[in-house]
Design brief:
Catalytic activity: L-glutaminyl-[peptide chain release factor] + S-adenosyl-L-methionine = N(5)-methyl-L-glutaminyl-[peptide chain release factor] + S-adenosyl-L-homocysteine + H(+)
Shape: globular
CATH class of the largest domain: Alpha Beta
Number of domains: 2
CATH superfamily of the largest domain: Vaccinia Virus protein VP39
Organism: Photorhabdus thracensis
Distance between the termini: 57 Å
GO biological process, one term: methylation
Keywords: Methyltransferase, S-adenosyl-L-methionine, Transferase
Order of helices and strands: HHHHEEHEHEHEEHHEHEE
Domain Methyltransferase small: 100-194
CATH topology of the largest domain: Rossmann fold
Radius of gyration: 21 Å
Number of strands: 9
Strand content: 15-25%
């Protein structure tokens, strides 16, 4: 089937799905979606929008906030102003899972500070047998999270969303002692540190900064994990390169075993390399 026939088949299927969903003006919506994703019909308008986007990027607006989509582990996630844009750095978590650690079949997984759901949804895509729950507290971020979960259900990627404050221990009581894996990419930039304007000016403050040393939320997650993880359960936290010794100490002081920091120089940019610290709760 050539490209044009494939496009027509997709359009026919889309028309059918939109009608079944009760969309009130199927053809108008369909035309807009075709113009956005399959074929730009007005080239002048396309060029004008292109230059508007370029000017926004020159003002250091994050690319994901401009185009509304961020690709993460081959998942097209909906993002926008008010939510942290997932970075390739976080894929180190999935490399560790795939190459070094096998989560038992059917286990429960928590993705804390989930934001748009990138890490948890990527785990759910790779391991559909796992029971993944993405946890987010911020109202705007939670809207993106639930939208991405619903959106990717069309690809048979399944996860649950939980709106909960990490400081509210009672909100997690249902998971006590039952989780095999906790993953998190919490905010970890020290409050006085100057960073690129994409993050400093155009991302939510609470998604970037976390106390004087950047580790306030990391400390909380480590404490929470002690309550939530089952015996031999694993905690994986992403952080900055300069924080590796401090984070390992926090893991060890909390009683985690087999603690080590993994740095992936292959996944790096001007903000540094990809870094996680992992530890096991042996009971």
């Amino acid at each position: 089937m050539n490209a044009s026939l494939k496009d027509q088949a997709a359009i026919d299927k889309a028309r059918e799905l939109l009608a079944e969903a009760g969309v009130w003006d199927v053809e108008t919506d369909l035309d807009c979606l075709i113009d956005r994703y399959l074929e730009r019909r007005c080239k002048d308008r396309a060029r004008n929008e292109f230059m508007l986007a370029v000017h926004e990027r020159c003002n250091r607006i994050p690319l994901g906030h401009i185009v509304g989509i961020a690709d993460f582990d081959e998942l097209p996630l909906v993002v926008g102003t008010g939510v942290f844009i997932p970075r390739p750095h976080s894929q180190i978590i999935h490399k560790w899972l795939e190459n070094e650690h096998e989560v038992p079949q059917g286990s429960g997984v928590l993705d804390l500070c989930s934001g748009s759901g990138a890490i948890g949804l990527a785990i759910a895509k790779r391991r559909p047998d796992l029971k993944v729950t993405c946890v987010e507290y911020d109202d705007i971020a939670f809207q993106y999270l639930t939208r991405n979960i619903s959106r990717l259900a069309g690809w048979a990627v399944k996860a649950e969303a939980l709106k909960a404050d990490l400081w509210d221990w009672q909100a997690f009581s249902q998971f006590n002692g039952s989780v095999a894996l906790i993953v998190a990419n919490p905010p970890y930039v020290p409050e006085q540190q100057t960073i690129l304007p994409e993050w400093e000016e155009h991302h939510p403050y609470v998604s970037v900064y976390s106390g004087d040393d950047g580790l306030d939320l990391t400390r909380l997650i480590i404490k929470q994990a002690k309550q939530l993880l089952q015996s031999n359960g694993w905690l994986v936290i992403e952080h900055g390169e300069s924080q590796e010794e401090s984070v390992r100490t926090l893991f060890s002081d909390a009683g985690f075993s087999l603690v080590r920091t993994i740095i992936d120089k292959d996944i790096s940019d001007t903000t540094g390399s990809s870094v996680i610290t992992v530890g096991c709760q042996l009971i």
